[in-house]
Design a protein that fits this description.
By secondary structure, the chain is α+β, with helices and mostly antiparallel strands. The protein folds into three domains: 98 residues, Helix Hairpins; 49 residues, SH3 type barrels; 81 residues, Alpha-Beta Plaits (2-Layer Sandwich), CATH 3.30.70. It has seven helices and eight strands; from the N terminus they run ααααββββαββαββα. Strands 4-3-2-1-5 form a five-stranded antiparallel sheet.
């Protein structure tokens, strides 16, 4: 029982010394988190009114939230009485160790920032990058998510996307659709060109300006190949691609134009 009194005195001294600081730090923490929530909502509303891509809005909002919370945490630690010089030194050492261990992750984070700043693509764009193709579903802090036409999900790290080559098929409103059709040697080339131009003219999705282009491109081993180049709105690209191929096949047959295919003659000698 004799040791209880000194222990209580030490406890009382500790409460009197650090109690007000702890209470003040707790109040500051709660108020700070409340203010950060208000700031985040305000930033989100401003970004929604702007022209920033929806997926990048979340990226920016998350980044601002992390920075503000980190600053609040440092302020609260200082209020409790922790020496900031020692704390920052320890934090720097820990940060260096974590940075070395997570260098790839930090590279992906930096890649996400680069995508945010330079905007090589946005949500909804159809891109070809890192050996994959698909529509950009979401741009996250470390990864970008693609959706393929057959509904597969592809997750690509932002580091490679920011430093590698990317083909964006959605940047321009118009795209050129290229075809190559073969006819047999001896077929009427002028008739084939007339048939192709007629099919092109009948498709309202194909633009008149720039004008369609049809010409003989190659005298191949078993066919005379004609190149066809037409322009269309990007949204009509694949529809025109598949429809014109089908129409050419059906119409060439009706017009007596042959579509060559590989053949092999086998001679059997007794």
């Amino acid at each position: 029982m004799e040791n209880v009194s000194p222990l209580m005195e030490k406890l009382y001294d500790f409460i009197m010394t650090y109690g007000p600081k702890l209470v003040g730090a707790l109040i500051t923490l709660l108020i700070g988190l409340w203010l950060i929530g208000i700031i985040n909502r305000s930033i989100r509303k401003r970004l929604e009114k702007g022209n920033m891509d929806p997926s990048l809005r979340g990226f920016t909002n998350s980044l601002v939230s992390i920075i503000l919370k980190l600053l609040l945490f440092i302020s609260v630690i200082g209020m409790v009485g922790v020496q900031m010089t020692s704390f920052i030194a320890i934090l720097g050492a820990v940060g260096l160790a974590i940075g070395l261990a997570l260098s790839g992750t930090l590279q992906n984070f930096a890649g996400g920032v680069m995508i945010l700043l330079f905007k090589p693509f946005k949500a909804g764009d159809y891109i070809d990058a890192q050996g994959y193709s698909g529509s950009v579903s979401e741009i996250q802090i470390f990864n970008t998510i693609l959706k393929t036409p057959d509904n597969k999900t592809i997750i690509i790290p932002n580091g490679g996307l920011a430093t590698g080559s990317t083909v964006n098929y959605s940047t321009e409103p118009k795209r050129r659709v290229d075809f190559s059709f073969g006819i047999g040697y001896g077929d009427d080339v002028d008739k084939a060109k007339k048939v192709l131009l007629g099919l092109i003219d009948a498709d309202e999705r194909i633009l008149k300006d720039p004008a369609p282009f049809v010409a003989v491109a190659e005298l191949a081993d078993s066919s005379v190949n004609l190149v066809v180049r037409v322009w269309a709105n990007a949204s009509d690209y694949w529809g025109i691609h598949f429809d014109l191929i089908e129409q050419v096949y059906k119409t060439f047959e009706k017009e007596g134009l042959n579509i060559p295919f590989p053949q092999m003659d086998v001679h059997v000698h007794n």
